[in-house]
Amino acid sequence: MRRRRKPREQNHERWLVSYADFITLLFAFFVVLYASAQVDKRRVGQLAFAIQVAFQKMGVFPGSSMQMPRDLAPMPYANAQAVENTKRAPDIGPLVASPTGAFSSAEETQDLTELRKELEKTLAVQIEQQEVALRAVPEGLVVSLREIGFFDSGSAQMKPRSRPAFQRLALILSQGTYHIRIEGHTDNVPVHNAHFSSNWELSTARATEIVQLLLTEYDFAPERLSAAGYAQYHPVASNGTAEGRAKNRRVDIVVLGRLQGSTVALAPGALPADSTGHASGR
């Protein structure tokens, strides 16, 4: 005789399986939404950065030395503005204050414009004789002291007759708080004499000679000054003509910006002046 099987008891908690599946799917859904939101923020940051770069090239927004984060994480608008602007027109500056500067760029631009007018008036004779040249660059104002008016060929000593003009220039620059970089430049004709064996040595010696004069005779603060020698590698004219080579043999006094009590960003090859007036980093 066959035994009768007992009927299985019904499990009244089977709904928990469906409920658990639903909760798992709901959790996954919100995880996907959160991840999508984070991706959108990154894209917004990238878009803001791209727009900022485009406007930087037009000279609309201020430049700075900060860089965009490598991970492209969401960033505030202030950070999106941190783009280096090296192609700004030479006669204008950024339109609003930089994050590290106490002066707005509009003020600095106005100051440099007034400084240029004062120098053009004070050095009018030297400019007319093409011994001095002024030009605006993105960094500031460049005063070029050409060899024909200030140095003998192959020498780093300033001509005695040029001292009055240099004194007027130094007195004007001493009234401000600008950072000043002195750059020595030569033409491409090799130099070899008892004092210098290369254009590198000559250009650097002329730059440090100017720094020495500013420190010892005109009481410039050492932290305002730096010196650099570029030899023949930064010409302003063609070395193919005598006139062009004469323009390239020069010492440039680059007025960079106002002293803010922070470390000066030097150009490649520039060395800060020490208390003796010579470039440091020996």
Q: Tally of extended strands?
A: 6
Q: What is the name of the CATH topology of the largest domain?
A: 60s Ribosomal Protein L30, Chain: A
Could you state the order of secondary-structure elements as H and E? HHHHEEHHEHEHEE
Structural class comes to alpha+beta
**What would the principal axes of the Cα set say about the shape?**
rod-shaped
- Oligomeric state: single chain
Gyration radius, rounded: 32 Å
End-to-end Cα distance, whole Å, is 112 Å
Total domain units? 2
The order of strands across the largest sheet is 1-2-5-3-4-6
Which characteristics define this entry?
single chain; 282 residues; 2 domains; 8 helices; disordered C terminus
Protein architecture, described:
There is one protein chain. The chain contains 8 helices and 6 strands; from the N terminus they run H-H-H-H-E-E-H-H-E-H-E-H-E-E. It is of the alpha+beta class and 282 residues long. It folds into 2 domains: 66 residues; 168 residues, 60s Ribosomal Protein L30, Chain: A, CATH 3.30.1330. A 6-stranded mixed sheet has the order 1-2-5-3-4-6. The longest helix has 43 residues.
